[in-house]
Design a protein that fits this description.
This protein is 24% helix and 24% strand. It has 7 helices and 12 strands. Helix 6 (202-210) links the parallel strand 11 (194-199) and strand 12 (215-218). It is elongated. The protein binds zinc ion (2 copies). One zinc ion binds at residues 76-77, 79-80, 82-83, 91-93.
Amino acid sequence: MTIEHVEINKPKRNEVLVRTRVSGLCHSDLHFMEGKYPTPVPAVLGHEAAGVVEEVGEDVTHVKPGDHVITCLSVFCGHCEFCVTGHQTICSNTAIKMPPGKAKRLRWKGEHLNQFLNLSSFAEQMLVHENAVVKIREDMPLDLAALLGCGVLTGYGSVVHSARLEPGTIVAVLGCGGVGLSTIHAAHLAGAARIIAIDIDANKLQMAKIFGATDNMDAKDPDMVAKIIEMTQGGVH
Ligand SMILES: [Zn+2]
Ligand SMILES: [Zn+2]
């Protein structure tokens, strides 16, 4: 990673120029930096951010200059078969949810510079489609809001969409990092009766209690599985 001066376009139709205030560093960014996941380079990484709308293009109706927003990498068109059936995350419109290397919004030394996940938040400004931002309340701290766009949603979605947790159930959450804590938080909100937080780090387990964990388990304990089965009288849902 290097710090460079780059050029960014002006907003075209349905695009929004955002002044980045805060960007999270997601572990996925690290995977791309280390080359474990492929992406066309050179690129500006970063994908969970909060900022203030600076300028909007033609036909933008969701936001206006001055609005506080968070970004989300799941940009969607809102009109395709998947979007209209409530599955915006698998939007098939590649003119809006552009595949890697396709967005022509950034330049470096006069050459094409790749936008990452249609966002590129490790920069002072982001040029994105209006459906890549969500307006938030102005009194929400931007450093906390920035995490909503990826880590928090990943945890929340795993509870609400994947596990479809029902009130009263008992759950175990393996790993209490940003996603794990958000999973615990979502399980708590969804009405889990008991939430067992599992991690090797005592500090993270302590944090897990703040987010709603009712029990802790040391992941290094070789009897962990047996203990969980015993304490839940048969295992977690
Ligand atoms: Zn992420
Ligand atoms: Zn769509």
